[in-house]
Amino acid sequence: MKTENTQSQFRKQAEKSQNRQRVFDTLKDLDIPFQVYDHPPIRTSGDVFLLSEDIGGIKCKNLFLRNNEGTNHYLVILGMESRCDLKILARKLNEKRLGFASEDRLMRYLGVPSGSVSPFNLLNSTGKEVCLVVEEALLSHEKLAFHPNENTATLVLSVKDFMKYLRSLENRVDFIDLSF
């Protein structure tokens, strides 16, 4: 039994390392410079205080949402201090209602558990099913900070290079004013 648990933990750690490396390889292939900071797990936006102040860039939170019917999925990126009224966002996206996607949908569409959601999860995605929604105000900053597909590190890159990464994706990207 203990051997099975150890093997399972080893497999999970290897998968996390592969997901993280996929992000690094993609950014290098796109000639995008970045900095990475390792830290204890950050599971929620409330845990951001655990990050060192030395980590530059605007820390972002990422919400994985679905419409009421479960037919459309949205990865919403906003600044850590920003609020997101789901009713107003639903109207802006021409949806009747939005809600948080289940853990099952998170694994199916983004390939990560809760607490590791980021725009880099789209590298794990099997297609264009997920629409990326970016808070317009983030574009006015110099640098942004995200998890690189795992919550034990933070990756910082320039907004210009983040835009370059977004252009490399096949997913629809909407920039929305989230100041309500």
C-alpha Rg, in Å?
A: 16 Å
The N- to C-terminal Cα distance equals 53 Å
Task: Please state the average pLDDT score.
Answer: 85
Query: Domains counted in the coordinates: how many?
Result: 1
Model regions low in confidence, pLDDT < 50 over at least 5 residues:
7-12
Proportion in β-strands: 15-25%
Shape: globular
How many strands?
8
Identify the CATH class. Alpha Beta
The class by helix and strand makeup works out as alpha/beta
Major beta-sheet overview: 8 strands, mixed
Number of helices: 4
Can you offer a commentary on this structure?
This protein has helices at 2-29, 86-92, 103-110, 159-168, and strands spanning 35-38, 58-67, 73-79, 98-100, 130-135, 143-146, 153-158, 173-176. It has 180 residues and is an alpha/beta fold. The protein has a single domain (2-176), classed as Alpha-Beta Complex (YbaK protein), CATH 3.90.960. It contains four helices and eight strands; from the N terminus they run H-E-E-E-H-E-H-E-E-E-H-E.
